[in-house]
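User: Can you help me understand a structure? I only have the sequence.
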Amino acid sequence: MKKRLLSILLCAALTGILVAGCGAKKNDDTNKEDKTTETKEITVMVPDWAVPSDDMLADFTEDTGIEVVMNVVGWDDIRDKVAIAASGGAAAADVIEVDWSWVGEMNSAGWLEEIEMSDEDKADMPTLETFTIDGKVLAVPYANDYRIAYYNKEHFKAAGIEKAPETWDEVYDALKKIKEAGIVEYPYTMPMNADESATTSMMWMAFSRSGQVFNEDGTLNEEAVVDALEFEKKLVDEGYTDPAIKTASGMDCYRKITAGEASFMVGPTKFVGLSNNKEECSVVGQIEAILLPGKEGTSDKTMPLPEAVGVTKFSKNKEAAKEFVKWYTSADTQKDLFKANSSIPTRNEVLAELIEDGTIENAGAMLDEAKLIKSPFPQGIPAYYSEMSNAIYNNINKMVLGEVSAQEAFDAMNKKVTELTSE
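Assistant: Let's start by predicting it. Here is the structure, written out as tokens:
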């Protein structure tokens, strides 16, 4: 990650100088002003799925007097734009998108302002833990995504299985019966291509089966990770997964459940909605969201992959920016964002309300799983996460392609992770 960040900064050097030069007068003027005379206009940089409606923004401006300029940028481009601006001591925007996987790097680079949160907020938003490093909240999650299990009830019943699986052994036995009965050829689906989705899939597998992924020092826990890799390889080698998913995108893998081609998966929370949408699902009414299996019963934890917003260190309008973050992640706004963008609330109180009033239909174990959210990173997301993930998913893909064993895959990824932790 340090190498990647250095590359971005070097490539941006000229741009950074120009930004600094162009902004010099603005900085001088700002320094002359008292903090209480901050401008009442802020910029917010987020991807298109995070944009509030015009009516929502108008209400915020009316209540606070703060004008909001939305800077809608592709998710893949946001991190680089933030780095380029920061190299010149400038803010790409006052408020920025902060993906769960970026927070370690952004914290290490000093790009994020600490945000104060009440104990009540922390209790209601378990995903805040993901954006907390050294006790400091660096961003506030607005869109929840955590891993939950899905199974096709009709497939299970056709195989003579009357109850949802609670352990991974029960999942395996069910897959075997479904395949042997000829109900579907490949009853299990899971991302395993050489991309980020394979990394997170291994992580939630280890987390749900063994309760951990990493040791306290940030290195991989060998027992937990090898156990997860061996189970994944077993499902592949015994023909329970479609060979095509070895090179398919994560979303293509997940859609096998809504296409009726798979009987069980662990996937994003958005599939609660997709599985009830006739335009997205060919087996509406057959899929149910259930708690993640564990080794001796359902798992007592699940892994979150949320999106958040944070305030940049270089913002000249920090107080106004923090006021926006407070509003944007409030209970009322989370309800409105779900209606506008289908963003799953990060506040459990709001999620419960939307389920109870029928706004979210056929939620299954969605709320119960949300209460089990925990971060698998003992010391928070590391700054080198991207490099680590690259080593993990490439070796997972080699394993499912039959090039290496589970132990060999672990040894290779662990070597890289250990190097990164010692830098």
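Now, to help you interpret it: The chain has two domains: 2-144+305-370, 148-303+384-422. The first strand starts at residue 41 and ends at 46. Let me know which part you'd like to focus on.
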